[in-house]
Design brief:
The radius of gyration is 14 Å and the shape is globular. The chain is built from no helices and 10 strands. With 114 residues, the chain is mainly β. Strands 1, 2, 3, 4, 5, 6, 7, 8, 9 and 10 form a 10-stranded antiparallel β-sheet that branches. A hairpin with a 2-residue loop joins strand 1 and strand 2.
Amino acid sequence: MAQDGRYLTEKGQGKTIENPPGILRTTMAYEDSVMLCHFLMKKGATIPLHNHDAVQSGYVIRGKVRFLSDEGEAFTAEAGTGYLFGSNQRHGAEVLEEAELVECFSPMRPEYAD
């Protein structure tokens, strides 16, 4: 529901977008300075290397994801792992096990304002 220029929802009630294939995102709440998203990721799905102005921090609720960087560095995040990518830091991902994550972006990502 929209309220005072913000998008607010409860799990299972927001619009879910699949992009790229196997990556399902639901934008939960946002304003200009911050955005909260919920992700369901299917095993074998990939997110190509990319970057964006927003700082991205996340937390893995369940599953296992391998995060990649432009410099060839990688780390595996599983249930209980928190992580952060700086503004314009190139990163991507490979989903090793079906996963559920929450991520915050600051400032908000306009392309995720469903």
